[in-house]
Amino acid sequence: MIAQTPEPPYYAVIFTSVRTAVEDDYQATALRMVELAETMPGYLGHESARNELGITISYWTDKASIRAWKQHAEHQIAQERGNKEWYLAYKTRICLVERDYDQTTYKH
Amino acid sequence: MIAQTPEPPYYAVIFTSVRTAVEDDYQATALRMVELAETMPGYLGHESARNELGITISYWTDKASIRAWKQHAEHQIAQERGNKEWYLAYKTRICLVERDYDQTTYKH
């Protein structure tokens, strides 16, 4: 689903990745991280898609919330395993969403 | 591929969408738009993935470049068809990338 975010400004964390072939705990951990992120102060929503490239975007009210999430103990363990096992390469971008516009009238 | 972008700051346009079942010209137009975007001043790269949700992110040096791309005549026609035929819903977010970090050592 398209994340229902408030009026800008707010923050986006774009996580782009290429996976290894290692499946051990990957799906379960990914689901658990979404579940956990949803409980964090400042969390606004997330969007995700994967083909050869995976893109996960999480939305946050401010940078302090992003920092707190990055440093969450269980998330740190997952990041460590991501580095070692699940990701061949990744890039994280911290972004200030300045403006947005949409069309969400389901016409069909 | 993960887009090779320069040191921040730069801009990201996050386009999140849900497709209709209409296939007419969609793939060809999507490819053509990437080809065209690559010729635009200020274009830095793009990343794309789609499952139920589609996420396309294009990267730009500045907001003026994003505006010029949005107003490009051929892109305007594509946007119009997107509204009417290809997208059930979408959201566009204009973001200032403040910081990024990566791990792109292919270890496996």
Structure, described:
The structure is a homodimer of 108-residue chains. Chain A has helices at 26-37, 63-71, 73-86; strands at 10-19, 43-50, 54-60, 87-103. The two termini of chain A are 17 Å apart. A four-stranded antiparallel β-sheet of chain A has the order 2-3-1-4. The longest helix of chain A has 14 residues, at 73-86. Chain A contains three helices and four strands; from the N terminus they run βαββααβ. In chain A, a hairpin with a 3-residue loop joins strand 2 and strand 3 (54-60). Chain A has 108 residues and is of the alpha+beta class. The radius of gyration of chain A is 15 Å and the shape is globular. In chain A, helix 1 runs antiparallel to helix 3. Chain A has a single domain, classed as 2-Layer Sandwich (Alpha-Beta Plaits), CATH 3.30.70. Chains A and B meet through strand 1, strand 2, strand 3 and strand 4 of A and strand 1, strand 2, strand 3 and strand 4 of B. Strand 4 (87-103) of chain A pairs antiparallel with strand 4 of chain B, so a sheet runs across the interface.
Helix count of chain A equals 3
| Main beta sheet of chain A | 4 strands, antiparallel
- Output mean pLDDT of chain A: 94
Largest interface pair: A-B, 43 and 44 residues
How big a fraction of the residues of chain A is strand?
35-45%
For the largest beta sheet of chain A, what order do the strands appear in spatially? 2-3-1-4
Radius of gyration of chain A: 15 Å
User: Share of helix among residues of chain A?
Assistant: 25-40%
* Overall tally of structural domains of chain A: 1
Could you name the CATH topology of chain A? Alpha-Beta Plaits
**CATH architecture of chain A, please?**
2-Layer Sandwich
CATH top level assignment of chain A: Alpha Beta
H/E series of chain A, N to C? EHEEHHE
Overall body shape of chain A: globular
Give the termini separation of chain A: 17 Å
The overall strand count of chain A is 4
